[in-house]
Design a protein that fits this description.
Helices cover about 35% and strands about 15% of the residues. It has about 425 residues and is α/β, with parallel strands linked by helices. Strands 1-9-8-5-4-2-3 form a 7-stranded mixed sheet, sandwiched between helices. Strands 10-12-14-13 form a 4-stranded antiparallel sheet. A 3-stranded antiparallel sheet has the order 7-6-11, with no helix packed on it. It starts with about 25 loop residues before the first helix and ends in a 7-residue tail after the last helix. The structure holds pyridoxal-5'-phosphate (PLP). Pyridoxal-5'-phosphate (PLP) binds next to helix 3 and helix 4.
């Protein structure tokens, strides 16, 4: 059978079913807000409306109840949430924050806004989250916090990393943007650290267009998060805040429209996640028979929610690079309806290790004179910082999104057939 990449017939041309999670509920919620005429009700002053309008406050209460968190603070993105969290944690110039190399860039760049110095630790070869042993090696007397990422939908090693944080007095900021609804030993991702950040952007499990939520069990941190979210500096005198460090605020406020949609989406989260898990189970039953692939490892005690399905790839067994294998599978399969511009949702590796971004390599973040890296003259961001991440990036993993909840068994069968066809005909790709 000739591979589609080499001119053969592809396994499937008809697009996969559209992944759309919004429907009548969200329409009704948006109309309710539009009819009220109040699209946002924040006031950037010490006033009853400093905390936002009714939809925002209801969403926060529902989010906190769902996740079993004492506080939920709505913001306009997870990126804003990470900046809020590092501000609330009291990160200041020259403080070191341990971060991971494999994530959305903001997980590693957020400390820079407060003059903090990101220090990269490597990731686990099988679960892809921060490796506790390497985190321990990277702790110095200047370390103040750790940003852990629940990468691809599974919680970080909370037992080991939280113990290190306790021992050294560090704040754990948990980036749960890819893991809403994931669990570890019965607790939700996003509530495993001191502050946990969720995303509601279009590409995440549930979304409101743009949006984010920060969960915390700490009253003092919750107050500081709410201050940073809404022009802290204009407010702190009126409310009599005691701790003024990092109280230069932003407008990170979520609108009433986004909050109303987010409430409907939260109601759907568990069902959507159950479908993802069922699809992964169905795919894995057959994909695990392909010798060059190893199914993602789930940490003991964890419930994985599969933002992507990341399979380890063995180049020696396949006899060809991951990128070539991925290219061939992609050629067999279509895009998702309504997302044609995103292409077929499969690739080799994941983002380039973040320390290779120009801002780290050239040690220039804020202004052109090297701030804040001038505070850490000895620190270098070179290509070999995190060898495990480098080797995964170089073709040790295939990531795909064919487990999206819109996929039915007949769609998944096409995915399996495409992988199998490429495996069986891989000799056509050599030379
Ligand atoms: C998507 C994502 C973010 C950023 O989320 P936004 O809401 O778009 O700001 C941060 N961290 C991780 C791990 C993400 O996947």
């Amino acid at each position: 059978m000739t591979l589609a990449l080499l001119g053969g017939e592809p396994i499937r041309k008809k697009p996969f079913p559209a992944h759309v999670t919004v429907g009548d509920e969200e329409k009704a919620a948006a109309l309710r807000v539009l009819d009220s005429g109040v699209l946002s009700r924040y006031l950037g002053a010490w006033h009853p409306q400093f905390m936002g309008g009714p939809e925002v406050q209801a969403m926060e209460a529902e989010w906190a109840a769902h996740y079993g968190a004492r506080h939920a603070v709505a913001v306009n993105s997870a990126s804003s949430g990470l900046i809020c969290a590092l501000g609330a944690a009291g990160i200041g110039p020259g403080d070191e924050v341990i971060v991971g190399p494999w994530s959305m860039s903001i997980s590693a760049t957020a400390p820079l806004f407060y003059g903090g110095i990101p220090v990269f630790a490597d990731i686990e070869p099988d679960c892809f989250c921060l490796d506790p042993d390497d985190v321990e090696r990277k702790i110095t007397p200047r370390t103040k916090a750790i940003v852990v990422v629940d990468l691809f939908g599974q919680p970080y090693d909370a037992a080991a990393i939280n113990a290190l944080a306790d021992k050294h007095g560090l704040t754990v900021v948990e980036d749960a943007a890819q893991a809403p609804g994931a669990t570890l030993d019965g607790r939700y991702a996003g509530t495993l650290g001191n502050m946990g950040i969720f995303s509601l952007n279009y590409h995440k499990h549930i979304h409101s267009g743009e949006g984010g939520v920060i969960a915390t069990g700490d009253d003092r941190l919750a107050e500081r998060l709410r201050l940073v979210r809404n022009h802290a500096e204009a407010v702190v005198e009126g409310m009599g805040a005691a701790d003024l460090a990092n109280m230069v605020g932003f407008n990170f406020r979520m609108t009433e429209l986004d909050a109303a949609v987010a409430r409907c989406q939260l109601d759907k989260l568990e069902l959507l996640n159950a479908k993802r898990a069922a699809n992964v189970k169905y795919l894995e039953k057959r994909l695990r028979e392909i010798p060059c692939l190893a199914m993602p490892k789930v940490r003991p005690g964890a419930g994985h929610v599969y933002y992507v399905h990341a399979c380890r790839y063995d180049r020696d067994i396949a006899g060809l690079p991951a990128a070539r294998f991925a290219e061939a599978v992609k050629a067999e399969l279509p895009h998702f309806e309504l997302r044609e511009k995103e292409g077929t949702k499969l690739g080799a590796g994941y983002v380039r290790p973040l320390y290779r971004l120009p801002l780290f390599r050239e040690r220039i973040a804020i202004g052109g004179a090297g701030w804040p890296f001038t505070l850490a003259p000895e620190r270098r961001y070179d290509g070999s910082l995190c060898p495990v991440c480098e080797s995964l990036y170089a073709g040790g993993v295939l990531t795909h999104e064919f487990m999206l909840p819109s996929m039915e068994k007949e769609d998944l069968d096409d995915v399996i057939d495409a992988f199998t066809k490429v495996w069986e005909n891989r000799c056509e790709l050599e030379a």
